[in-house]
Amino acid sequence: MRDALLNFPLWLRVSEIGKSEVRLSVTYLTTNFPKPPALRSEFAHGGSVKLTYLAETFPHQFPSASLLYAVSSVGHPLRTAVLAEAKRKGLKIVINQNGVAFPAWDGLNYEASNRELKTVIHSADFIVYQSRFCKISAERYLLPPQVPHEIIYNPVDTRLFTPDAYPEKPDVLTLLLGGNQFQQYRLELALQTLKALHREIPNARLMVTGKLWLPDHEAKEWTARTLKDLDLIEHVTFTGAYTQAEAPALYSQAQLLLHTQYADPSRVLLWRQWRWACPLYIWIMAACQSWSAMLVSESASSMIGIGSTCRTHRTWQMR
Question: Looking at the 3D structure of the chain, how many domains does it have?
């Protein structure tokens, strides 16, 4: 009852949505719907970034639109209600399907986690799968409706992400852990990797972008303790959240990308880094079957050889 009362003003706004007679006018189901997607100069992450770029070509329309575009990984307190209302008013619905929950990372809770995703995808008149992996996952765990669909990989703005913009790299070997660190294991593996790399390159550094997992105080306490235990306090930098406009300059400060997300269904971060055409070595933790400390340690240890690989490309200055 309390949630219903709190969301009532928002529901009144949502109920204003209506069918437009314009052939193509799009409303985007953002986290702050009916507000428009974030600009490039504003903070956005994950699936919300797609809406930022789409809205530059097809501006957000509300309350009247002919099509509602939603990304499965972009939440909203009234998401299923918005989709139902749009469907009732006659709008066509496009669902951009990202990943799903599955036992390898969500354990026995995966069915509960997928319940809302099933409702979302079953509202679709057309489905955009972000990768073949997304399509296979949805078919196995969400049983999507028989509607037209297409696999469209996340694009990269090659006018923005280009090596010509920031040609200089730091002399000290710098690793980048991109995106947000909403799961502890992602940061843990990166720190273990840096520690292993110090056996070959003692002054190697790590940049960690984005936000940490919740609750915030627990994440900060764990991070401070782990940095001290691994003797990495002077070698790790946390940049915090960043905008899309800030991303190129940020990415240019590293030579090596660490992408530790388990079975990432849509790896746009990798394609952006690839566009830099710089000495880039990618480690993807995508085949792990456990999140145990032993696995993290063993996975990180397998990175030791990268020091020798880097040395064959460039002599990193020891400072």
Answer: 2
CB within 8 Å of 29: residues ≥ 6 apart: 68, 69, 70, 71, 74, 76, 79, 82, 83
* β 126-129/92-97 pair status: parallel
| Residue 134 neighbours by CB under 8 Å, 6+ apart | 97, 98, 99, 100, 151, 265, 266
125 Cβ contact partners less than 8 Å away, ≥ 6 residues apart: 92, 93, 94, 147, 148
DSSP string, 147-159: --EEE-PPP--TT
What distance, in Å, lies between the first and last C-alpha atoms of the chain?
A: 61
- Tell me which residue of 85, 102, 105, 101 sits closest to 93, measured CA to CA: 85
192 and 290 part of one domain: yes
| Angle (CA) 194 198 201, round 5° | 115
Q: Which residues have a Cβ under 8 Å from the Cβ of 60 and sit 6 or more positions away? A: 26, 27, 28, 30, 36, 37
What digits encode the pLDDT tens for the residues 225-272?
Answer: 999 999 999 999 999 988 878 888 888 888 888 888 776 665 555 544
Tell me 134's DSSP state. Answer: H
Distance (Å, whole) CA 233 – CA 199: 16
Strand partners, 205: 174
| Same domain (yes/no): 180, 146 | no
Quote the tokens at residue 105: 């990372």
* 211-222: pLDDT as tens digits: 899 899 999 999
Look up the domain containing 38 and give its range.
2-151
Contact 126, 101 (CB under 8 A): no
Say yes or no: 182 and 303 in one domain.
yes
Please indicate, yes or no, whether residues 135 and 191 belong to a single structural domain of this protein.
Answer: no
Look at residue 168 and tell me if it is in a domain: no
Specify the pLDDT at position 166: 65
What is the tens place of the pLDDT at every residue in 99-109? 899 898 788 99
Cα gap 193→195, rounded to integer Å: 5
